[in-house]
Amino acid sequence: xKRFFQAGISxxxxxxxxxxSFNGLLPHQSLADEILLKNGDRITxxxxxxxxxxxxxxxxxxxxxxxxxxxxxNVSTTTPVxxxxxxxxxxxxxxxxTKKGLMEVKPKDGEESALIDWKKVExxxxxxxKAAAWTGSLTVGASQQSGNVDRATYSIGADGGLHLExxxxxxxxxxxxxxxTGNVTARNSYGRFSFKHFFKKKWYFNINTEGFKDNFKNxxxxxxIGPGIGHxxxxxxxxxxxxxAGITYFSEDLKQGNDKQFITARFAGDVKYHITQxxxxxxNFVVFPSIEETGDYILRNEISISQKLGEAWSLNLTHIxxxxxxxxxxxxxxxHNTVFGLQYDF
Length: 346
Known about the structure:
The chain is mostly beta strands. Helix content is 7%, strand content 62%.
């Protein structure tokens, strides 16, 4: 009995050894996704995400690397991915290697494979979009001087925006007040609202309205409103740039003299650039050249620089230049206004 038991154990060991040896001769199936680059290099790991510009990949030696999509020749995956098409469709499955410019998607449930063009892919494993919410900032500035000179200045500014998939709403408000030795030396308010509808990725229709009131420029209210078209050149976390052109209806309610109504063209530009993670430069300009009177125009240029102090707080320095080459009698063509304040972003 004892010999029979020992013989059985020996045979079992031999059989297991043969199984493991035979298994070692078989090719092991890779459990990793693979990227084939145009230069012939292969990278194995896990596809995390793909957007129109880069493929985000993780490997054993790097948690996350970004690869320019123009350098990728082919992709294959061993785990199902979610593919979002530009036409709104969504596919789920493994990506199989195929000829250049195409990808084969094999569904997990055994359905037939789909052969699709890489150019028609919007993203892979795109993160869920957060619910749209208003974002913006509030800036407050003040200065007080007493003694030989009694001088005070106050300013309040606010920005807000709601950006949806194809529509954007933006608004801007700024009011400024100054007095010197009991006499008011500046009092003006400016407001702007714009609506954009993107009919292509970088092109949009827009409607802009602006209001300006200045007691020292003979303006009870200057109101402008009109449609236009815009082009967004850049829009990423580091830089933003856009240009607009359109037609605007102007209405000026003057403190003295005859009120005015007229039509002008409108050209505008908006740029924002992160010099560093905490230092941000921005410039917004708009010019209204007269259609009826060649050479007449109104211009507003607002340039600012912000230095972040923490997660939500910043110091902001803004310079505003207003120009009207055909002002009312007794009013100068140029106005300069510099505002230094504390800004809170939300």
